[in-house]
Amino acid sequence: MTAASIKEVARHAGVSLGTVSNVLNRPNAVAPATRQRVLDAIAELGYVRNDSARQLRAGQSRTIAIVVLDVANPFFTDVVCGAEQVVEEADAMLVVCNSGENDARERRHLELLEEQRVRGVLITPVGHGQQPRLDRLHERGIPVVLVDRGSGRAGRCSVAVDDLLGGRLAMEHLLDQGHRRIAYLGGPFSIPQVADRHAGAAAALAERDADAQLRIAKTTNLTVAAGRRAAAELLTLPAAQRPTAVFCANDLIALGVLQELTKHGRRVPDDVAIVGYDDIEFAGAAAIPLSSVRQPREQLGRTAAQLLLEEADAGATHRHRHVVFQPELVIRASSDRPRR
Ligand code: RIB
Hints:
- This protein is an alpha/beta fold.
- The chain has helices at 6-13, 17-25, 32-45, 51-58, 74-89, 103-115, 131-139, 163-176, 192-208, 224-235, 251-263, 281-285, 297-314; strands spanning 63-68, 93-98, 120-123, 144-147, 157-161, 181-186, 213-218, 245-248, 273-278, 291-294, 322-325, 328-330.
- It has three domains: 6-49, 434 Repressor (Amino-terminal Domain) (Orthogonal Bundle), CATH 1.10.260; 61-162 and 297-327, Rossmann fold (3-Layer(aba) Sandwich), CATH 3.40.50; 163-295, Rossmann fold (3-Layer(aba) Sandwich).
- The strands form two sheets. A six-stranded parallel β-sheet has the order 2-1-3-4-5-11, sandwiched between helices. It has a six-stranded mixed β-sheet with strand order 7-6-8-9-10-12, sandwiched between helices.
- Residues 69-70, 73, 75, 148, 193, 222, 250, 277-278 line the site of alpha-D-ribofuranose.
């Protein structure tokens, strides 16, 4: 059964279309008895207003979209929660789109969001491939803010965490603990966060101890399963080449490494120390609590949403900003013992 139209409501209540519109948008402009007749007709016919059509006509949608890389990663859940707080305070709605680290899916989401003329888009891009499409959204008056990604571009706001510093903090900690054979687990390196964390770690190692080794174990994605696979590969190395510590591009990989090492009887941190990245809730709650480089996840989401709403309200007069937060190393049992 299709929903009743506004015309059927007007006919049923014996009033004009304009009176029904007034009841919906300016109820105090309608006499109480007439207003009640219209409300009764709406209830009896099951009429539901088409808010997106109204918003399109008004040119002012109340929907904001956030496109995340991986909806299964608790990092993004926390970012979304932060953005949602700000969006709802602005009497708007946040819809979540998941690119799954897939360019084609990300492109499709952006196409649909443009058609819907949403009020703005928050996005953690899969790579750099969508720049032209993001520019087009701007040209159509739909502001875009990059989340968890710096933007070297003047014409776009961004919020990010200094991942180079984050990689440095993790590496300096492992070197301080006496580790000299260290592996970096993460991938694909087309994701800037993955590349930057490695670059920060490599720079710290080069400055501190040229004799130490940093092996890269590239993963196909940033999931627990990818961490298990990477750890299984490291365990096949001859003992003399096996790393005594692993720095993981995010906590999901670190949790997979912890699971695989434990399954094969390896002691953490005595045989292998582990450091993750994000400090999601499950890091501290793991069977052997994980050390991790903490990102201010909800603050990232809140700040990105604030920048977007500012731009949506200010339009061309908006001054674009690039906000960079500092990471923090949280040391827990998975790496807290010096290498003997
Ligand atoms: O999306 C991949 C990773 O990048 C997340 O785990 C988080 O670290 C983000 O910065």
